[in-house]
Amino acid sequence: MTHKQPTYTPTDEVVICPICFTGSSGKLIRSDRDVASSLVVFKDKRQEYLVCISLDDAQRVITQRIVTIGLLATTIAHPREIFAGPLIDRAASVIIAHNHPSGVATPSKEDIEMTKRLFQRVSYWAYP
Prior knowledge:
- With 128 residues, the protein is of the alpha+beta class.
- Strand 2 and strand 3 (61-69) form a beta hairpin.
- The protein is built from 3 helices and 4 strands; from the N terminus they run βαββαβα.
- The radius of gyration is 14 Å and the shape is globular.
- A 4-stranded antiparallel β-sheet has the order 1-3-2-4, covered by helices on one side.
């Protein structure tokens, strides 16, 4: 199986912009809509929640975790905390998402910078 090196460009869409929560274990993730439906519980939260979803090699949910709960418009997380769970799960892929309590889904400058940093960190684990 050939694996592609992860890439990120600032024009990539960020749609969805460790406490485990249940309800989606084994769910097949085929699209951004599947991801959104898994995270609907965070839609009306008044604080930012940073969430990590571990997937197996068939794109089924292994575990969903709340990594951090932030403030009204910010949350802080280190890659170590974000990737600790998926490494334990031996996840084949990971979805990292957070809500925007303001309801504005446009990624902020900080969202874009954090995404770039996370891509840099995971490039160590990418297959050649």
